[in-house]
Amino acid sequence: MSIKGLKIKVAIVPLTILAFILVTAIFLQINSVNVEVLKVDCVSIDQLKKELNFKGKNYFLLNKGQITEALKNKHVCVDSLNLSYRLPNNLDIKLFGREPKALLKEKTLVVNPSTSEIMASSSADTKLLDLETQESSDSSIYVSDGFGVIYSKTENISDLPLIEVINQDLEIKNTIPELVVNTLSILERIKNMSVPVTSVKVLGNQLYLGSQPKLKFTLSNDLDRQTASLQLILQKDKMRLSLFPTEMRLTLDSKEKREIEMIDLRFDKPVVVYIPNK
Question: Selecting from 3.10.20, 2.20.25, 3.40.1010, 2.60.40, what CATH number does the domain 3-97 have?
């Protein structure tokens, strides 16, 4: 290659860069911003338009990650956003709110001698507590997404699971992933086992389900092992009970012929308690 040809190529490179800068500056400059929201109820669209006013800026230079994180930190109900450029010189912003997956309510444990005795025990003979609770000073019902992020309050009891959180303060922007994620996972699994649940209570890392039978899980332990054990116990019990008419079950002496009252799944060998004879 001749020196003259090399000089021409060297000269073309900065010209190409300059042309790219000029094109992006002219054609990617933002003159109009359109904001659309979906399930974002913690901030008004007018406020969002003020905060997302990128008029005069270059679309190519916008950092979507930084914009998203700044919005999520300021408005916890925001989950994600999409940025798209539309000719000529228009920026479309679509914000998506968090999906509600659970309702949370603070409760206070009513402590009595029986409660204190059972709570102090860690043996495999521990029975499932019928936790007696009362309203806390905060009567709000909080909304959490599926990742345990508390992002709003509500006055409406919907079809979402209502989790009573005992002796733990709840606040918007709190994140409690183990409590919410694991509780929802367990509820979904036992739903497939046709176990109706009437109440859901969490104390520390212990999950108490008001169901038939009553169930107790440890949220910090292996959920697969606990739910697999539950499924096996229920399957065996269904087969066992099928041998006896309903009217006979409470009159027979052997515990193997009575219905299960409680299953404590915290241990490697679950504890099964039967309904006592009348």
Answer: 3.10.20
Q: H-helix or E-strand containing 217?
A: strand 214-218
pTM over 0.85: no
| Burial class (CB within 10 angstroms; exposed 0-12, middle 13-18, buried 19+) of 100 | middle
SS3 letters for 197-213?
EEEEEEECCEEEEEECC
Domain extents in the chain: 3-97, 102-274
How far is Cα 272 from Cα 229, in angstroms, rounded to an integer?
Answer: 11
Contacts of 227 (CB under 8 A, 6+ apart): 186, 189, 190, 265
Residue-wise pLDDT tens digits, 129-183 = 567 788 888 889 999 999 999 999 998 877 899 999 999 999 999 999 999 999 9
Going from the C-alpha of 94 to that of each of 63, 150, 249, the distances in angstroms are 15, 22, 60
What Cα–Cα distance (Å) separates residue 217 from each residue in 30, 120, 194? 54, 17, 17
